[in-house]
Amino acid sequence: MAFLLFQPASAQQQPSAVLEYMGTLTPARLAEVAPRIDGLLLKINFTAGQLVKQGDLLFEFGSRDKELSVALAQAHLKQAEAQLRLAEVKLRNAETLRTRNVASEMQFIEAEAQRDISAARVEEARANVALADLALDQMKLYAPITGIISRSLVNEGAYITKEVREQSRLATIAQLDPIHVVGRAPASAYFQRGEIVTTIEQAAEQREFGLILPTGDAYPHKGRFVAGAYEFDPETQTVEVTVEFPNPNLLLRPGLDVTLQSSIREP
Question: Based on the structure, what is the number of domains in the chain?
């Protein structure tokens, strides 16, 4: 796939010339926090616009029934393990009796089969414990990425059902450091710099990007090309380029219109 970028095409266009075109800030990543199972929402541990870090606890659901399910599964596992120990004792006895010609081969085979059945039941019980633990863990929802979180789309005390799980989310997290600028380069710029660049790496090496804020001030960090479109928008006659900028102070926010500057990187 080729990306439409821009290379000076005439002597009148100096190699260090800067092209300017409009762009809009967008999150580098968006992550949705969605409920996984039915449950009563007990606690929301954030406020709208808060910076949350990956792994932070966001939502807590009522978990008493899941805790009881874990205890029940663990009890069944202990029972299965006890039955396995008993089956192993019986198998050893059957083997001893067989070597003394007191028990038949069939009795030994039956004891061996009972041991295998008990072992399988232990594995099944362990799997059930793992499933119960997983269901309990899902009663707490954590931030999948670091970023600014939206307001909660549900309130404490709401009971989340299967229908709600399938149709909605609980919150959205936007990663803002780094942040992306989607620039809209006009066709005139393309014909001024008429080179087609075939890889993102090539584009990143050849281009340098700056940013002008709505105040007219230059943003202090340089950008890095990360993506480009392969076609023009038929309505606006522009082509999109996506540039990534550091945003350590979270000054830049999604939706803001800025001026993107594109120049050829000095050798």
Answer: 3
